[in-house]
Amino acid sequence: MAEHRNLFSAFEAVANKRGTRSAIIYLGTRYSYLKVKEMAGQFAAALLDKGITPGQKVLIYVPNSIQWVVAWLGIQRAGGVCVPLTPIYTPHDLEYIANDSGATAIVCADTNFGYVKKVMPETKIDLVVVTKMAELLPTWKRFFGLLFDVIPKGKISLGQGIFSMRKLLADYRGKADFLPETGRGGDDIAEILYTGGTTRHPKGVPISHDLFLKAADEQIRVSEPLFPVEENVILGNAPLFHVLGQTCSLATLLVGGSLVLLPRVNLDAAFDAIQHFGVRTMIGVPALYRMMLEHDRLDQYDLSSVDYWFSAGDVLPLDVARRWKKRYGKPIYQGYGATETCGGVTMCPADIDNPPQSIGRVIPSKKIKIVDSLTLAPVTPGEPGELIVSSTPMVDHYINKPGETAEAFIEIEGETWYRTADVVSMDDAGNVYFVDRTVDTIKHKGYRVSASEIEAVLQDHPAVVATCVIGVPDEKVGERIKAYVVLKEDVRGITGYELIKYCRKTMVAYKVPQYIEFRDMLPKSKVGKLLRREIRDEEKRLKDQ
User: Fold this and answer.
1) Can you tell me whether residue 424 is helix, strand or coil?
2) The pLDDT value given to residue 30
3) Which ranges in the chain are annotated with CATH 3.30.300.30?
4) Is 3.30.300.30 the CATH number for 445-544?
5) How far apart are CA 237 and CA 134, in angstroms?
6) What is the phi/psi pair of residue 214, to 5°?
7) Residues 489-524, buried b or exposed e (16+ Cβ, 10 A)?
């Protein structure tokens, strides 16, 4: 894809080649490459006619759907900059990101149109395109969806500056062939992805056309030893507003594969899609794989078509990996990346037997150093240290955040490096292992204790579904180790003492939790990551009372 100047030209070249082959499969309906290209062109024509100029920011506030893809490609074709958001953001988050990015337009679902209307007076948004989640499906599907009331609905009011996506596509039919070239590409910004990180407000990460094309091509081809990329059918459970969903599933549209989209994760729907459409790749976070193994109806589906099971976003528990391999005879391949690195930094090769718990090997476009987090000096080979990453091209700043930029992006010997704040180690063969986040290291009796390590041990207990470990301030020992645990629904009689005793079997004494608190659930981010900081904040509030 390196010969293409921008994202849309890369997609267009593939679309012209693949023609009537399925690009998107949404709620059981197939959309060919040429159809998606046509709709994206119509949408671009509409945006240009409504005043969008190259470089303008357009928010995408829609769940995974054919509309999301049409909007993303259409904005690129018009020369705009996409700003994808999670569709469950509140008005507070929406207003902040709209103003931080400088967005002047938004594509939203009818179910969150009320939020958009509420924040419009406080932002620069003057163009709203509203879509209903079933409006691009065949008529008979829309009819039955309405008949059985299975389609979420929201109230909308079209008018000045507010348009229906379906009507825009109809009104601009045939206009795509007369669009001017955008002149954008290369180092120009293609999209801004917002990441939570550890700061109060989301941080905007600008991704250029060149960076996306290079990174996405590399990551989508990791499974190539198992099957040709153009034969890949990906079930994209990861949200498209997140870099995992983009580089590991959406990117298949740039190499000729097919992408199966569901508006939200539903295990039976996912299992049925795998079986019905012959899915070759499934993307998911570790929590999803655990949920699948615990699902009552798993045995009713044939999932044998999947050759490439991929997990990222968190460390895959060894217990889940072992159970999966035993059940299906195929491994779950892991990867590690960040929004700031445009996805993958390390990925498990698909043509070797990867060591247990390895998050893969460094992919060719990336360079890494493992350093002491205080001095930035390289650690002894094999020892854990903070991971820093460099590449060409790469992200080198956050939008409108010079302070956070200075902390996260540093220069070493004339090269820019991104500080991940994650602690990893690497063996002699180049396999990388996640150890912990530097901000989540517990200091107990002078020892540095990995919260992730304790969580991994607890999650191997057959009664435990999820766990979160934090350090509780203590004058005598620095921090005491406390674990929050969620048990399986059908489990009774498990005590904190029993779990502590279980930890003692495999861990040195100073790593064993002193406290266990049982919970019904734990706080997670929009993409399924455990939010330790929320638990810490809650613990601090209780102590301060």
Assistant:
1) strand
2) 97
3) 445-544
4) yes
5) 19
6) -70, -50
7) eeeeebeeeebbebbeeebeeebbbeebeeeeebbb
Identify the CATH number of the domain defined by range 29-207.
Answer: 3.40.50.980
Rounded mean pLDDT for each run of 10 residues along the chain, 545 residues in total: 77 97 96 97 97 96 97 97 92 93 97 94 97 84 57 73 95 89 93 74 93 96 97 94 95 98 92 97 91 93 97 88 95 96 97 95 97 94 96 96 94 95 95 84 74 88 92 81 92 92 86 93 78 82 76
pTM of model > 0.90 = no
> Which residues in the chain are classed under CATH 3.40.50.980?
29-207
Kind and range of the H or E run holding 435: strand 432-437
> For the purposes of burial, counting CB atoms within 10 Å of the CB of 364, is it exposed (0-12), middle (13-18) or buried (19 or more)?
exposed
Which segments within 291-363 are labelled E, that is strand?
Answer: 308-311, 332-338, 343-347, 361-362
Quickly list H helices, 33-151. Answer: 33-49, 66-77, 91-101, 113-119, 139-147
Looking at residue 1, what is its pLDDT?
A: 46
Whether residue 449 contacts residue 481, with contact meaning beta carbons closer than 8 Å, is answered with yes
What residues form DSSP beta bridges with 436? 423
